[in-house]
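User: Could you check the structure of this?
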Amino acid sequence: MPTELEELVGFIAHPNPQIRLAATENLVPYSTADPAVFKANDMKPVKNLKLLIRDHPKIAEHVLTMLINLSGDPEVLEDLGKDDKFIGVMLDHIVGQEEPNANLLAMLLANLAKMDGLESLLEKKQTAPEALGSDDSVMNQLMDLFVKGQDGAYNKKADFDYLAYVFADLSKHEKIRKHFLTKQKYDGVIPLTKIRVFTEHKSDVRRKGVASTIKNVVFDVDSHPVFLDEEGINLLPYVLLPITGNEEYEVEDTMEMLPDLQLLSPDKQRDSDKKNILTHVETLTLLTTTREGRDLMRRVKVYPIIRETHLRVDDEDVREACDRLVQVLMRDEEGEGAEEKDGGTSNRVHEIDEDDAIIEV
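Assistant: Sure, the predicted structure tokens are below.
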């Protein structure tokens, strides 16, 4: 005899929408408390849930919430991530300007991005809504949703913050990094330059995902000259500002800092998330891989900023990262060949999976 919970799961696919609504609403807590029940009968309940993301918006809301939670299970994650048709439906819905569950779709996509294989998004194409102003590339559409859709500017019911985690996880893959660094034909803009401005955004999720994306893309050492070029991607001010507080520096040091860091307001504060600070310091360390990067950071007085960060951020990981960066900046350049051989950076600087944990709702 099936249990009451198993019977309730069976009502997910009931032809009566009112019964489906009641079933999905009551099942949401069990998607975290008892996920195994959704994997019964060769994961038939999960298969039914995938079909219902196109259902009435309220039913779809409960369904997406359950799928977000269930994607913490490796088997469910694999089932979702390998279903191209399901992912296609997700992508078609998320770009809709009136889609009420766009944020939940972004959260589910962020969980799926942890799977190897989702970098195939780079090859996917679909027609973009005219209001989005994008081309037919799914990656470009997601980027435009993230940039143009912040704070409900594109879809009043969505901010698309969790797409930052999608970019962070996808940027572990070399071909995605290359895409983020390639000027796009439809708007003539390098994608990474669209998101760099969000390193100081009010959203914790947006800041964290963007910081991680930048760090992962900086693993492309061949692109360091354009990262540092003021006429290129010009990453340095966007990485330094979040780790800079309202400290006063020696006049000589201040005058040599980047212009964006010279006239900060008295109420300027560092990022409140210590993990973000750690990520930015490690990005700076990666940018010291080349002699040009090290020379530039010495010239624009990065050291005093790192010194103050070390003093004022009470976190052992941040302090260790600051120590490693300072050692690189303060050392002599003699014997550079040996240092360059291993990339010139600590082997403790790794790509970031953002966020480490599966998102639950």
